[in-house]
């Protein structure tokens, strides 16, 4: 086993942190954007270096490395995780590979960033969280890539809730709507295969909103009542490579083995009530993540398609000035904004990956607990499992495993 090579708050500014990434499709490209940018925008205690990217096809991974900015390539992740110039392994491959790669990387002494959802099953997530706890004792960091926590408006919303600005939370309402599966001829990519993705809209989008809601409210879901549906049970096979979220359709057809949509209600530890909807079948909705929280003293409202804005209603303001007020989250005092552009010069989706990279690099340098940790990812996985169990039992209220 190799020792972790870079830890400690006193590492000199120029100390490199070698990153090795597995996978280079949509999420890999988004993470690469974060790694390319982060050290040029934020003042970091370690200097991320894009050491190597890994994919099975030698020509395709070489092309991806050149396009995305990686210095070297590997075609087997086992070789990537033991490279001397890699101290952090960033996992952007499909869910069925997460557990094996993350555990091997942690055992090789590396820090790990793993895309969401943490795993395809609770058992895998438990094994990963165990490995992360053991690695933590050796000074390593393991974090889950729930990037929407890093939208400045969401970090601000969490602060406003924690500061008591909306009082005790009563309602949490979250929807995450996409439409790339409305077409029944959209092909069977890995995201529609339970063996590879674990679940459908539930794990892909539901995992995000479960984490985000819990993050903003600072509370955990204790039980759920759920329905899931697969509206298009059979689709054409994929002919060729995945491009973005889709690809070319072939002649043969095969079964969709995951949900197209999941709808569930939930109770939080505080007693607050929540509702969640995750679908890739909402015609016209491209990446619409909306969140509203109602408390005893006010409300917050957010729409990812307008991610620089947070709406705040203060219940103590009456008369002519009552109502939701727009906060334009681009001030230098807002989370992450000190390093970007002057007020009003907006940020977008890609910036969340630079923010994620910043937070991870800072945690590694400081040796501090990462957030979200693999334990946080495991808890989300347990919520997803409770949703599936409830849906199988005709929406019966189902407690989240591990909740006292
Ligand atoms: C596809 O639904 C997807 O790429 C998700 O997998 C991502 O996590 C989300 O950020 C955008 O949409």
Describe this structure in words.
This protein is α/β, with parallel strands linked by helices and 404 residues long. Helix content is 31%, strand content 27%. The chain folds into 2 domains: 132 residues, Rossmann fold (3-Layer(aba) Sandwich), CATH 3.40.50.720; 249 residues, 2-Layer Sandwich (Dihydrodipicolinate Reductase, domain 2). The protein contains 10 helices and 17 strands. The strands form 3 sheets. It has a 9-stranded mixed beta sheet with strand order 16-15-14-13-7-12-11-8-17. A 6-stranded parallel beta sheet has the order 3-2-1-4-5-6, sandwiched between helices. A two-stranded antiparallel sheet has the order 9-10. The chain is globular and about 65 Å long. The two termini are 37 Å apart. This is Gfo/Idh/MocA family oxidoreductase. It comes from Streptomyces triticagri. GO terms for molecular function: nucleotide binding; oxidoreductase activity.
Summarize the structure.
By secondary structure, this protein is of the alpha/beta class. It contains 10 helices and 17 strands.
